[in-house]
């Protein structure tokens, strides 16, 4: 009862526990499905799927203009709704733009990325971007209203739909496209569920969109697409660079091995990390808006993440190859060997990355853009140079060391920005 009473009396812990428990369940579903998926889909098919996810991760930052991050920083409900509508409009426009670009440059895209075997995946990229963009805007709008219960159920629903349909689509012979289609379906079902449960369909009624007013709102918060989109692009480029460069210098199978470590090691801990970031953002945005310091919350979250991340790291280091071979099949032992090398880089990202919302609350997105730009260049350089001369294990080691060093520097800037003077004016 003491633990329950403490959770009820501490809003941060209560909200975190809500998202954390849902994230654990969602990831349990993903991990439980993975042994079936690795026996249905080949490493090459996972490699193509990982490439598709990487492309979507790069493009999503321009799909929404990153306006969803501004939803939590404004006080008025009218402005929050306006920002969400801006996200919907931009996502729709960008989806149409990508569709047109794919039609015009179809042959060039296929040849550039060697997608002759899976050319149909291009169709799913713009559809995925639209679903992702709307979901991100909706998640931040619900976060603004502290609807963590709905957010949690949306996570579990998305995971269930994606994992279940991936297995079904694979069994009926859809292969690489099965993984992609299941991913799209997971996003769509989650958005529909959250919209219906909270009765938010009015936010999607274009007849009520006052475009002149929305244009003004977008102009006021233009620093998000101008600076934060670029920052996020660099951040995602650094995160997705291994997929593109490994595809270029090695093979689809190697990308598949790497992508499995992401699926069963990185995604579970990163989604926990994302849950912390959402609650952390809500908490410090409110404190900062009221002119109160939030350093104590920053330190508390840093300690919490440091402790939580120890267990998965130890598991990867001590039982990576054996565990992957046992659970996913002998064919996937190589993925476990790579996960051993990547473990400490994953840990650094897990601990530090959620704290970066400090840059958004303090409106230091230009500084963040510079930091992420430097990181993107250094990451691509390390991977490209090492891939030219070294084998895959040495390349992954160089990448992991680079990740650790970057996040140490990143943490320094997070604390420095958090101590800077100034308050939000809205």
UniProtKB/TrEMBL annotation:
* Membrane-related topology note: Multi-pass membrane protein
Q: Where does the record place it?
A: Cell membrane
**GO CC aspect terms:** plasma membrane
Q: Please verify whether the record's keywords include Transmembrane.
A: yes
Keywords from UniProt, A to Z, are: Cell membrane, Membrane, Transmembrane, Transmembrane helix
UniProt xrefs under InterPro entries: Poly_Biosynth_Transport
One family from Pfam that matches here is Polysacc_synt_3
User: Where exactly are the transmembrane stretches of this chain?
Assistant: 49-70, 82-101, 121-142, 163-193, 301-324, 344-361, 373-390, 396-415
Keyword Transmembrane recorded: yes
Please report which protein family the annotation says this sequence is part of: Belongs to the polysaccharide synthase family.
UniProt name for this protein = Oligosaccharide flippase family protein
